[in-house]
Task: structure prediction
Amino acid sequence: MRNGIKEVAEVLQKEKPESHAHLYGTGEFAQIYGIVSFYPIWMGTLVVVHIAGFPVEEGECEGRIWGFHIHEGSECTGNETDPFANTKLHYNPSDCPHPEHAGDLPPLFSNHGIAMQIFYTDRFQPEEIIGCTVVIHDMPDDFHTQPSGDSGSKIACGEIVKQ
Ligand SMILES: [Cu+2]
Result:
């Protein structure tokens, strides 16, 4: 426990992620790009998020929290109304309600257009989610509404591949 952060720093320095996704935005969010990497640690996964290109809001009180999930579909493709419709539902192998899906992640907080977050989860292993997708939404997840937290449109997406 005491050396937890040291161990994380070592993993980041010495290991390669077991899986990762390059994310790209769409439509009015086409500026969004970045990478999400998944490292094995502590019988679970260290998720490292670095995304840039979020719109920078002028006001102090709005628009900086974005829903963030792993979806079960394998392709960042879709149709005119939902460009990432083929990402389908949240990754949920244990058939749990939202927000207990394995793919339910902490929402992204953007600052000066950048979201940088590192967190640990034991809901999946890095190799287990290869072939799934990472999706960013234009609304915060309310962690209550079924089946997806009322998190609005899908604005960015990345396909998870083996490193
Ligand atoms: Cu989602």
